[in-house]
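Dear colleague,

As promised, here are the two records you asked about, laid out in our usual form so they can be pasted straight into your sheet.

NAME FIELD: protein one
SEQUENCE, THEN STRUCTURE:
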Amino acid sequence: MAGDARQLSRGYAAVFSTVVIWSLPSLFQYYLNRFYDPWSQNFYRYLVACLAIIPFVLFQFRRGPKIDIRAVALCLIPCLPNVVHQITQVVALFYVGPGVYAIFGRASVIFTALLALIFFPEERFVIRQWRFQIGTLLGLIGAFGVIWFQASGEDRHVPVRGLVISFVAIFCWALYGVLVKRPSARLGPIRSFGVVSIITSTLLLPLTLAFGKIGTPLQVTEHVNLILIISAVTCITLAHVLYYIAIREIGVALAQTLQLLCPLGALGLSAWIFHERLTAPQVISAAILLIGAFLAMRTKPPKISSAAIARLLSSSLL
């Protein structure tokens, strides 16, 4: 019982830390869009994140167990939707404000729940609970309400292209969160993100060379580059390691659902820094989202025996 309590404490501490940190990415990206194109912005942010985590990865590989080559290879799979997510979320910010996107992005919980239901039988206990179902539904309604009631001059709705790009971004984020669970469980949060950051940076490099401007860091001020470095180290390196810990301790579905709280911080900071404002219906939608997050937070993950964990880690999907 004490071990279960410690596991839950670690999981919730990790997930709430990511909630605080992931209130910031859309703000950083919205600001950097003025200086970096989407391709170069994502490449350099992931490159910095990779350089930040590499010393810790090397230290763990030196002290830890033998490298699991199969788990390392499997990290390539979640990197593919991760690359798509990184690009599309930055492009989406050309159509919507950072606060609005932060809320709309929480709609990924519904895709995460469905994908987790398919891939991870051990999480079906969480998804079947009425608090999780109602909380996810309310969060989804609140997220779409913020988009639907956005006022933008004569056109009160986000352009269809912006909606499609935003939709692709949140679906790929959900897919990434689900696919990274198993290799993360085998490698651990630091080593798994180290591998993911190396692969993601490598995949983003040719895209930047083909479509972006690789020399952007030399053309902008030191202040802008410092903002990029801070965003990479906090929102990518630190947040991903914490998120992997949360996934391991409390599961994909619950860890993702609690991210519904992220838009609250993003909205407040965006209103303060970029003067983004919400309409009354959007405020109501945000309140519905918060209620949904509270209900989901009261959902407890199932107890999994060590034998079940062993079977999970050696399953055919690995």
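NAME FIELD: protein two
SEQUENCE, THEN STRUCTURE:
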Amino acid sequence: MSVDEPEVVAAPPPIPVAPPPLVISFHNGPAIRIALSMGFLAFLCLLVVGQLALPQALVFVWLAAAGFLAVFLYRRSTGQRLSVMNGARLGWISGIFGFVIVTIILTMFVIALSEPSVVATLREQIKTRGIPQANLDQTIEALHSPSGITSVLGLFFLLFTILPAFGGAVGAKLLDRD
């Protein structure tokens, strides 16, 4: 190296920039996959509580837990921390998927109730469980009227959206602690 040659200094390597976190929405693939699975699990819990002699309050607990679990799984799979608002949004999306599943099943059930043989079979199953006949008659009557169906769907919509959103917000808040 001669005195006249300038010394070549290598440029420092660029500092890696983390990509911006994905927005929790219906366009976020990992969020949708997790929300769909949690919505399906929330629906399954509704079925299990309905089939077994479990306290009905477990439905409320599980729906909130589904939102919490969605946040936990999302954070674990992506490594992304969620704000309370994004946690609530992920829980809400989980609830929307659960509500859609409930709506499809309820629609098939209402159609099946138009067949007298299905109603007779249902009455026999209710007798073996010891559930009062008046409860079944009241349910069938409600599901034969548009206002009854709207009321049931409205209740399911509120349960499947508010509780998972609450669970998602709580999950984001609790899991953000390190």
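A couple of things worth noting about protein two: The two ends are 53 Å apart (CA to CA). The CA atoms of residues 36 and 128 lie 35 Å apart.

Best,
R.
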